[in-house]
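Notes, p. 3: input format for complexes.
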Amino acid sequence: MNDMRMVERQVGTKPIKISGRNVQVYYGDSHAIKDVNVDIEDNTVTAFIGPSGCGKSTFLRCLNRMNDTIDICRVEGTITLDGEDIYDKKVDPVQLRAKVGMVFQKPNPFPKSIYDNVAYGPRIHGLARSKAELDEIVERSLRRGAIWDEVKDRLNAPGTGLSGGQQQRLCIARAVATEPEVLLMDEPCSALDPIATAQVEELIDELRETYSVVIVTHSMQQAARVSQKTAFFHLGELVEFGETGDIFTNPKDSRTESYITGRIG
Amino acid sequence: MPGGVLFLILCTISAVGYVMGRRKAVSVSGGDSRVMHSLLPYHGWNVALAAFLVGLSVMVLWSLLRLLFGFTDPGNNIVSVLSLAAALLAGWTNYARIERNYRARNVVELMMKGILIFASSIAIFTTIAIVLSMLFETTHFFRDYSWTRFFFGLKWSPNFSGNSDLGMLPLLWGTLYVSFIALLVAVPIGLFAAIYLSEYAGPRLRAVAKPMLEILAGIPTIVYGLFALITVGPILRDYFAQPLGLADSGSSVMTAGIVMGVMLIPFVSSLSDDIINAVPQAMRDGSYGLGATPSETIKQVVIPAALPGIVGAILLAASRAIGETMIVVMGAGAAAKLSLNPFEAMTTVTVKIVSQLTGDTDFASPETLVAFALGITLFVLTLGLNVLALYIVRRYREQYE
Ligand SMILES: Nc1ncnc2c1ncn2[C@@H]1O[C@H](COP(=O)(O)OP(=O)(O)O)[C@@H](O)[C@H]1O
Ligand SMILES: [Mg+2]
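Output follows (666 residues plus magnesium ion):
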């Protein structure tokens, strides 16, 4: 049984997209992420799980330098994307974020039309040369966001008028429209009802074909359903990282086991 | 006895009423306050408020009656007796009612609600009363002076011996011209300052700059007026108006407009700053997360989201500019003129209201009564502006929510 899994794992190994080495994050004096080492593969869904406040979001935000927007936040160590240090002085965080898209916990469509929401990124980055091309990008992104059929007749209606689940899929479509290589999702389903959650989860599984997806979730069932790799964080440390199946059925660390069986969290 | 003493006695009665009511409630409860419908303090308040409100109402009613019918009450004797007796009676009635099932809490809540309604209606009724009295005087004015000549007259030259030209248009023109220049100065600068403060400035700079702006907003306008008279006026005249051959007076629309704009900068920036800060951080994060720069985020997400509020702030600033008097007197002068040249002296509605009413005046000639007509016009103008502001704000809300 164990041997078989070993084989499976070697076959399933994909190229490494993002890797973090000795990553430390401080908010002022408080040490929020302690010495994290992690390799995130391409075309894989990686789940970050752990009790709330353990630093999942903080670490996720390191991966596209969203923490730069918080004054008191300081990041140490190295994080590379395709082998290049993203905290290097040469790297423009604005360009990085175009490559590493992000979907947030609460759906946050802009107070603009559905069309303009999706077209926002492509317009900023000049991805479309003509109106027709932009239309095409918008349609393609909305289809990838699995929301095209619901909104195709009202692209000019405000995005804020959609239901919560639709808004979140719109936000995913918006992130997809900039053609990122990595998609970061911070508890994308926590504000959604079960049906919308199922739709978004299905979508995540499809997105894996094109992107490397990193998803923070507080729901272990969700991590088990959508991810291939799971990282368990506890008090700012990365306690355990491996195949999702292993983490859930055969955790090596006692803290992981306690969390999974519901004793901490 | 004097009114103040009467009021103090009324307060004392209430205080005593509170203590007595509470004490009776304690004794009725027999030491276990849980058997009472209402908590003990409510029984005290019940007595105190009843005495106070009834006493006060009698006092107020009495003054109204005296105003209406014009009788006298030497030494306030009658009203003192009446109101104190009423207060005692009301207090006693509620005191007598105290028992276990008496719903003192509900009665107190009702009285509190009454007080609040009274307070709000005072504000509304005073406004209505002011408008009515202005309207009244205005109709007097239009009896002596044709309204077409007032609203459409192009000449303003009051003449206290009679035969004046009281055309409003030069004044309205001056008002709008000065306000326009003021907004031209205040809106861009104030808005940019607000954007800098809320989006770029660090917390330490913010902590210093924001209170400083607010202090600026508190400077009396007469000080700005001095600034216009002594500094800005001469500079504009010596370096712009005279070299360009446009005019040669220190007082000008430009002077007043610029200084008024400076006065409005903190007003606009402080309001806009609050509004921009109210845009949820999630909007900005969403934009940054898509690889937008700070300025793109501000231009395309933050400002559109804050726009209704900002428009409201601008219209409020416009109302203030239209109602401003002191800066105009000292900066733009007092000559009513219809001209496009911004370096010429002009004047505004508010300034003329003041100048028509100062000095020895009887409120009978059109020359003084015109002030009320001007006042009503100004009132309608600012009211319209505020209604427009509300309308715009609401339309944007509907669009975005
Ligand atoms: N903006 C911030 N400023 C200061 N401390 C923060 C900030 N964001 C998060 N933290 C702290 O960092 C730790 C990790 O938070 P977070 O990454 O949000 O946890 P999680 O997403 O796992 O619930 C917490 O202790 C939290 O209080
Ligand atoms: Mg979180």
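The radius of gyration of chain B is 30 Å.
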